[in-house]
Automatic annotation (TrEMBL):
Membrane topology: Multi-pass membrane protein
Pfam families registered for this protein in UniProt: TPT
Protein name: Sugar phosphate transporter domain-containing protein
InterPro entries according to UniProt: Sugar_P_trans_dom, TPT_transporter
Localization per Swiss-Prot or TrEMBL: Membrane
GO cellular component: membrane
Length: 266
């Protein structure tokens, strides 16, 4: 068993930086060389991301999965509220209905298994705030930092590496990994490189989505994408989907359709 949560994020960030650098050297993409003023503009995105990552780990430590699922939907409501406050993008009735359907479905699907503690609620609430802050500030950064999307991916991952690599030295993940000779294999390298490769495009897609649409749409997409994740995961890992999960999938699809209809009407 391994517990290299932060170290794996560092691996993926390094791969993304290498891909950006390689594509730039080949003339496929372009962005300015590393500049401290630009890095300082983008730094808050990474700091908030680190806070989101840490509170997410603490939330999973002190809460069961059903509780986390419910609060992830509450985070979406925080994002929609922030979208209105900071970007003057109010949610119409259908959008609010979509959020309500998704939140109600998450509670209905998991209420029997939810376990509530004060510490658990604290970390989940903190994670909701950091998640909302990350998405909202990412929108602000894409509007104010003069970079191409690939430049944003580059700076995002360079700064993530610079911030999180020392953390892996401090918390022992790096030393544990170096001592695990059984993990120093080509297949393990390929798996992490592939994860970084996918993460590179995921990072680009996330930045493009937030810039082109907005935080609220990004939040809804983040909820609806649990549908293909659950279905594909059941095939890849040969895992049975429980009736509660099927119910949550159906409710998420309903909420997604309602939100899509709201956007079409606009």
């Amino acid at each position: 068993n391994t517990n290299f949560n932060i170290l794996l994020v560092v691996f993926q960030a390094v791969v993304a930086v290498l891909l950006c650098s390689g594509a730039k050297a080949a003339g496929k993409i372009d962005y300015p060389e590393f500049q401290k003023p630009i890095a300082m503009q983008w730094l808050p995105v990474n700091l908030i991301f680190c806070g989101m990552l840490y509170t997410s780990m603490q939330a999973l430590t002190h809460n069961n999965v059903p509780m986390v699922t419910v609060f992830k939907n509450i985070a979406n409501i925080f994002i929609a509220a922030g979208d209105y406050v900071f970007f003057n993008k109010p949610s119409d009735g259908l959008t609010k209905l979509a959020f309500g359907v998704m939140l109600t479905g998450a509670i209905a699907a998991s209420y029997k298994d939810m376990h509530i503690t004060f510490v658990g609620i604290f970390w989940m609430f903190a994670n909701c705030l950091f998640t909302a802050g990350y998405v909202l500030y990412m929108k602000f950064a894409t509007q104010t930092v003069k970079l191409s999307k690939f430049g944003m991916v580059y700076y995002n991952n360079v700064l993530a590496t610079a911030i999180l690599l020392p953390v892996t030295l401090f918390n022992g993940e790096m030393s544990e990994f170096l001592s695990r000779v059984d993990l120093h294999t080509f297949p393990y390298f390929v798996e992490n490189f592939f994860a970084g490769f996918v993460g590179f495009f995921l990072n680009f897609a996330s930045l493009s989505c937030v810039a082109a649409t907005g935080p609220t749409t990004y939040a809804i997409v983040g909820t609806v994408n649990k549908i293909p994740t659950s279905i594909i995961g059941s095939f890849v890992f040969d895992a049975e989907i429980s009736p509660e999960t099927w119910f949550f999938i159906a409710v998420s699809m309903t909420g997604g359709f309602i939100y899509s209809w709201a956007k079409i009407k606009q």
